[in-house]
Amino acid sequence: MKVIVAKNCGFCHGVKNAISAAEKILKQEDDVHCLGSIIHNKDVVEQLAKAGLKTVDDVEKIKSGTVLIRSHGAAPVQIDRLKEKGLKIIDATCVLVKKVQKIAIELESQGYKVVVIGDVNHPEVQAVVGCVSNVAVVADESDLSNLPENEKLGILCQTTKGPEYFGDMLHAIASHGFKELKVINTLCKETIRRQQSAVEICKKVDIMIVLGGLASANTRTLAKLCKKYNNQTFHLQNWKEFDTKVLFGKTNVGVTAGASTPEWVIDEFVKNLEAFDETKDSE
Asked: Which end of the chain is more exposed for a tag (fewer CB within 10 A), N or C?
């Protein structure tokens, strides 16, 4: 079986930094918490849990020790509360996410209603929303009713979304009516490179595999994008979830992975694909 792996896939810099910070502090201390899942990958979360990392979804549940702020960031009110409780904080927020938070604050100070294009329940979006008071989140056109007409709108986007989605939503918002529109491109360039690499490959192969957590926004975007160009696209977390029957009669497979997918998951999947023998597996 011929396997083509995307040039750009797997851990991004922000995720690597968060994982590295977690591993380092776990070697030094016993009482370590993470405010929310460190990344959207079940395998990695379980691996770090075995090493002692406690995932907690509420600041008030943390009574002592060290708190790791994941790559998605946290709202200022959460950070302030952790400080009030006297807890040690390790901030592993992605530098781009920090930049988006600062942009949101700046837009509001300039008199704009901040509009975040993205998923309202995504931790990155929630952290950005927590930085300002005059804000609205728009995931699709059904949310446009939440926007005021004839006002100054300052637009930014969840970093893990794609250019096509961003463009479509900008068009929808502009059609809704506004007094002034200021748009800041906050898309992650690394995410865009991954999307471009994935699309290039999925057009050439019989089957496209997108590896990553089912809760990972950037991985879901990758899978959706690949599905658009190759109907035989499968979003999987690891090899255990794969039904090899879909490989029967196929000659080549493309593989890509989200920004929170560890290299060992990718390597294991690729090795198993390369070793696949239809005559043996069909018995």
From this structure: C
Q: How far is CA 64 from CA 44, 86, 221, 270, in A?
A: 24, 8, 37, 42
Q: Which strands form 233-236's sheet, in the order they lie side by side?
A: 2-5, 252-257, 207-211, 233-236
Instruction: Based on the fold, state whether residues 41 and 86 are members of the same structural domain.
Output: yes
pTM confidence score: 0.88
Domain CATH code at residue 73: 3.40.50.11270
Q: What is the DSSP letter of 49?
A: H
Query: 94 - beta bridge partners?
Result: none
The one catalytic residue in 29, 60, 108, 124 is: 124
Query: Can you give the CATH number for the domain in which 6 is found?
Result: 3.40.1010.20
Is 274 among the catalytic positions?
A: no
